[in-house]
Amino acid sequence: xxxxxxxxxxxxxxxxxxxxxxxxxxxxxxxxxxxxxxxxxxxxxxxxxxxxxxxxxxxxxxxxxxxxxxxxxxxxxxxxxxxxxxxxxxxxxxxxxxxxxxx
Length: 103
Prior knowledge:
- The chain is built from 3 helices and 5 strands, in the order E-E-H-E-H-E-H-E.
- With 103 residues, the chain is an alpha/beta fold.
């Protein structure tokens, strides 16, 4: 059973993905696959709204990096919205705060 739920909001220039639950080893692969499938139709900037994200581990961070590689190939970006203090810390430790804007 996956511990992550997501909802996608689409506008002209971006996708906003609302994350809820845990983005961890049990859910990261499915999350990554679903977002990459979404990006097959059209690559846009991706906003990950983490307001309701309870937990993220290194596997979840890895899935975000994989998605980042796809969007960067098309000169687009990923942005993190409403991240918790622990996620901001994990982003800083991993160095991702230097390549992904955390708002």
